[in-house]
Structures
1.
Amino acid sequence: MRRVYGPRATILAIALGILAACTGELTSPTEPLRLLATSLPAVFLGERVDLPLRPTGGLRPYSFTVVDGRLPPGLSVAGGRLAGTPSVEGRFAFTIEVTDANLNRTVQRLEVLVRPLPLPALRIDAPTTDVEGPTALRLRLHEGRGWRGAKVELTWDADAFALDEGSVRAANDSLATFWEYADGTLRVDVATLGGALDGEHDLLRFTLMPVARGRLGLGLASEHRYVGGHHFETSREGAPVSAPAQTAPGGGAVGPEDPDGLDDFDDPGELDDFDDFDDEDRDVDDEAGSP
């Protein structure tokens, strides 16, 4: 047998390795064509999604076809991914057919649930036991999506707790706050100075001082400003828990003439007049236009 040495042997070994890799790429009987994605997570109305279908086996490239059912409006399948922005709520079932370069085929039944966007909510982790000394509290945003600001009213028993007025401040420099206090009621307008907020964020910090030892009961009412609408929530006693609320029609993104959303939060005393808030805010959006 003739042996090959030197550079020619190296080149031959590389060529044989490449050939073996190409001919053996996921084509063995133990690697049938299939989709690894057998279930899909819930998605949210109006929120961009990009979900991999994870094809494997067979021989690339793959092609994808919806052969039964229907995709949520706004979503499409391309390049092995389900992507787009869903525009209709509901549960959608469909069957995807995958074809490989050898014309092998397989199908997978999938289902995706399109839910409404979770509404933003505020929380205060208030103590649930008797309070004996100054208590620092944080107002925190939960489930923020495109959140721009809020009108907030916090209430407590003025005979039992006093506000340390020097303690009221925004949680960080990216927020602006305007507030007033009287008789156990703290009204605060808070808005972002930059872009919208997503997820969880501290918004406001303040300290209450007990007049006498007792349990702190906090009331919280708020109206949020976020890309896509408004939301009103109320809660009472202890650590507040937001109640389901109605999303007002209209709304939309803050226009370029009001990049910070501060014009909507100019009068803390208007907190109770939520209809006026909605109407004024829609006027701002109409005049400014969408970004």
2.
Amino acid sequence: MSAETDVSRVWRQTRKLAWVLILGVLPGLYVLGGFYTVGAEQAGILYRFGRIIDDRVPPGIHYHLPWPLERVQLLSVSSVRSMLLDFNELSDVDVQSEVTTGDQNLVNLVLNVQYTIQQPGIFATHSQAPEALLKQVAMSSAVVSLLQLDIDTLLTTGRNELQQTLRQSIQKQAYDLDLGVKVTAVQIQKLDPPGSIQRAFDDVDSARSERQRLVQEEQGERSSRLAEARSQANRTTLQSQAWVSELREKAEGDTQRLMLNYAEYQKAPALTAQRQHMEMLERIMAPASVKVLPPGRTE
């Protein structure tokens, strides 16, 4: 009996304190439970009775009415999310593992779709599985886009064009479906023919490379010959100009000498004629030689 008496006595003494804790501290803790923190790369979505009243709560410390009146959902909106699409791993889906190109060839395709959450409220409420829906949109866009390009273009110069086309197409459909995401980039991680026909494409690539090599060699030879021909033409032109200049100078000199002789002839015709006759004989006889032979000897 003494133990029961002690318990009763302790209860009577602490009953007021217990009620103070129950009626004061617990409600206080309940009210203080409404404080929450939004990280630097996050955005908060504030719900009141299940309805969104603010889908862009900024980073920092905030307060909302305790549950079940209000609640907060935190989403990472600044970080870039990645979604890997490997068509070879879609065996459990009603889609062939290879993708068909515009010229009826098959290619293995692996895409990396990068996106961010642009509208947190729409992303969280307009679809039960927005990322799964985005995956289906990306797959369908890839199939449609590859049907517009031939395999030679895809394997050479069309990769960048395909990446830009896919990004724009996926973004447009995501906007139409109200997914609340922004597609930042689409990267082609793999785009090649299946192994069974890879050798044929390798042979085609080798032949294309050999053709380019031969064309470059011929273009180099052509450029070398053109340069040599231009050099020869310039050299011939310079030689012709020098020869013409020499002839012109000689003709001008002969003309001046003729005019001087004519002027002297007018002054003294007989003396000038005799001098010119002697100069002519001198030029004619200059190469001649005289040999003296004994009488009776001839050669």
3.
Amino acid sequence: MMLNVSCLLILQVFKETAKKCILRLSTEAQLEVLMMMTTFKESTLEECGAMQIEYYKALTAPLDDMWELGIIAKANYFKMVGDEVFGYLVLDDQKSLLQFYVCPEFINCSSELFNEARMRLGFEKAYACTYEPWYLSICLDRATQVTVNSIMYEDALKENQLVMPDGLSEVLALSSDLDAALTYTDQKVEIAGDWLIPYYDMLVDSKGLYLYYMQDEIVGTGEIRQSKTSHQTANLGMTVSKDHRKKGLGTLILSRMKALAYERGLAPVCSTSIDNVGSQNTIMKAGFTARNRVLEIILD
């Protein structure tokens, strides 16, 4: 019985000493204690949600919603835990790092936590955007190769001279239009998948899907998606039928989505991949300018 009490006392003394080490962080030995205490526990978006809100507050531009909802939200979350929660990180299924956050009171040991996370979880690649400077910096400090993955755009031209061509009509999509929209997307844009039905359902529910018709044929779609984390921002999207491309229709649809976003009191943004030159040209013709980049970073 005495032995058990002694062990508990020793453990308590160790915890108190380790906590002081974490808070002071004045010597190499204290950092070693912190790393010994740290575990990387599998977690969830819900458990890390409060920290993620703080992470998003530090961004210098709105988060791209496809990145946020299509990639980050569905990835694998880990909490960095010792005597307290130090922060969290996010990995995709290929073990690429997507987010890394350290709580302000432990920011002085960020480098050690990052290195420990790499050693324990085994990631060798990171994706970081230029609008998340702290996370980007800690990745660049360890980079051996950096390439641009995607481009993020903000509006530079607040007004557009919109002239709807004769015969082109715009329709706000309802639930009754979903089958036609899905058929168009499959046959004329050649995009399909189980994700598309709930995605279109979400757009219809939020009044964010527009169909463009010539006579009875859908020739394009426009999308307005209000950001979940930056509520005054609208992420825009558009498609054009493969039978009607290179006629300026994409620029017109995107310009129209921009005008509708402003009518709703939202600032329009959009994005595209680095290899989609056609979309880049369309976006710039609609008055957008490239502000940020998503970088793919190979770590040393």
